[in-house]
Specification:
The structure is a single chain. By secondary structure, the chain is of the alpha/beta class. The protein folds into two domains: about 70 residues, Beta Barrel (Ribosomal Protein L25, Chain P); about 160 residues, Alpha/beta knot, CATH 3.40.1280. The chain is about 30% helix and about 25% strand. The protein binds S-adenosylmethionine. S-adenosylmethionine binds next to helix 7. The site of S-adenosylmethionine has 19 residues, from helix 7.
Length: about 240
């Protein structure tokens, strides 16, 4: 029976490598063998965020268990640039959108931050981490960005690493257009900061402007919603300094 070409792609926690045996969890067995009806000899693509993507063959297929073995690496681990995204959580669905798009656009670390005007300090961290994993699964990625617990922006800035630049998205727009501002910069360790719906407070604005690591930028003449600004900023940074060149 011709083996089913691996169309299914699944995240697993375990290590992946040549000849590595894998014992499917109950949930994975249910999905692979009951829902997707894979049989012995069929193939599936697995990735774990560390070892790249692997073509894996089904050795045993049960209702609640199963065994598989790694046959060949189909894609190496593809690391994104060393880019963090700091953003103030907004409405749940739009916060999820930011995490999903930041994953697809190549952020290495996604950091929800509490700013003076953030209107929600509640985030469902497990859900956000699941969105990052699902976005990676669906987009053929092999690296899953770290999604951090929510932190106070002020605390982060107080201990900000000297060697990491910040692209500060300044809605007051008395900053250079982003393309012009980044044209003077180099790649390396960066962070992008996006404020909440209410924008940054004057204290926060002053704090950013007083930091040598900060490059203030304008994302065009129109005020963007925070989630739109996150996508626009990531796109501008990636095309100027990231791995899209
Ligand atoms: N309430 C603010 C106002 O009316 O000025 C708007 C805040 S905006 C909804 C949320 C965040 O997106 C801002 O804090 C900023 O980081 C970013 N942003 C939105 N439009 C921008 C622009 N044209 N230039 C730079 N940053 C922008």
């Amino acid at each position: 029976m011709a083996k089913k070409r691996a169309k299914i792609r699944l995240f697993v926690e375990c290590s992946l490598g040549e000849g590595q045996g894998i014992v499917a969890s109950k949930e994975q067995a249910n999905y692979l063998f009951n829902v997707m009806r894979l049989k012995i000899g069929d193939n599936v693509l697995l990735f774990n965020g560390r070892d790249g993507e692997w073509l894996v063959e089904v050795l045993e297929a049960g209702k609640r268990a199963g065994k598989l073995v790694c046959r060949a690496q189909t894609a190496p681990l593809q690391l994104p640039p060393d880019l963090w995204l700091l953003f103030a959580p907004i409405k749940k669905s739009r916060t999820a959108f930011i995490v999903e798009k930041a994953t697809e656009l190549g952020a290495a670390r996604i950091m929800p931050v509490l700013t003076d005007f953030t209107n929600t300090d509640k985030i469902q961290i497990d859900r956000l981490r699941a969105y990052a994993m699902e976005a990676t699964e669906q987009c053929g990625g092999t690296f899953i960005p770290e999604v951090c617990e929510i932190q106070k922006l002020a605390d982060l800035l107080e201990h900000w690493p000297a060697d990491r630049r910040i692209m500060f998205c300044d809605e007051s727009r008395d900053a250079l257009p982003v393309a012009q501002a980044l044209a003077k910069e180099e790649g390396g360790k960066w962070a992008i900061v996006i404020g909440p719906e209410g924008g940054f407070s004057p204290v926060e604005m002053d704090c950013f402007r007083g930091m040598v690591q900060v490059t203030p930028v304008t994302l065009g003449p129109r005020i963007l919603r925070a989630d739109t600004a996150a996508v626009a900023a990531l796109t501008a940074w990636q095309s100027a300094l990231g791995d899209w060149g």
